[in-house]
Amino acid sequence: MIKLSVNVNKVAVLRNSRGGRDPDPAAYARVALAAGCHGITVHPRPDQRHIRNDDVARIAEVVGAAEYNIEGNPFAAARGDHQGLLALARATRPAQVTFVPDGDGQITSDHGFDLDADSGRLASAIDAFKAVGCRVSVFVDAGTRRLERLAALGADRIEIYTGPYAAAHARADGARELAACIATANDARACGLGVNAGHDLDQRNLGRLAAAIPFLDEVSIGHALFAEAILEGLDATVRRYLAILAGQA
Length: 249
Prior knowledge:
This protein has helices at residues 9-18, 25-34, 53-63, 85-92, 115-132, 148-153, 163-170, 175-190, 206-212, 223-245, and strands at 3-7, 39-42, 67-72, 96-99, 135-141, 157-161, 194-198, 218-221. The protein is α/β, with parallel strands linked by helices. Helix 2 runs parallel beside helix 3.
């Protein structure tokens, strides 16, 4: 069975837009786990635009025996209140850390690592996080091949960046991008690497990807999941407010 990890970053974005503590990402993580998801993903960034250091620790307590996945750039230096990815992993001991080559200028993750350029420093980062006891997954572009290099460095999994696939699927033209995802997944599996996937996956495009790569270990979904939850839950919520105002609740 392909596991679902719910990314709660968007809850933190909403909270930070207003300040204060509400909505609390830890509370939403608790609801998602109670609904049956297999784990929780967070992606703290040095600028703390959404998930903050204190969120990482509090959500770790909520996750308990479920899987905790912390994403981030292992090469981003600690600054200000941000401790750096390795320090967060040491403090919370997540089951998995996913390396993502993001920077402050990116609104969201939009590409994987360049394995030709980054293999050298990835080796030391993988060693450091595995010493903490974390499974290490590395974010790669669909179509990336020669993944035996990552296996040799000690990585456990890859996460396929599915943004281009999702965009093409929305245009009803996803065959080429899906084929690229499949090729990378097959290459990873042949090297003994596990396969995760994430970015812009939603209820419309997830089934096609899962059918094409049935040996996926995990998908991480946040933005679309919370957008869908807001829409699909809005009718019931408005009706509850109206009932209160009418003295019926």
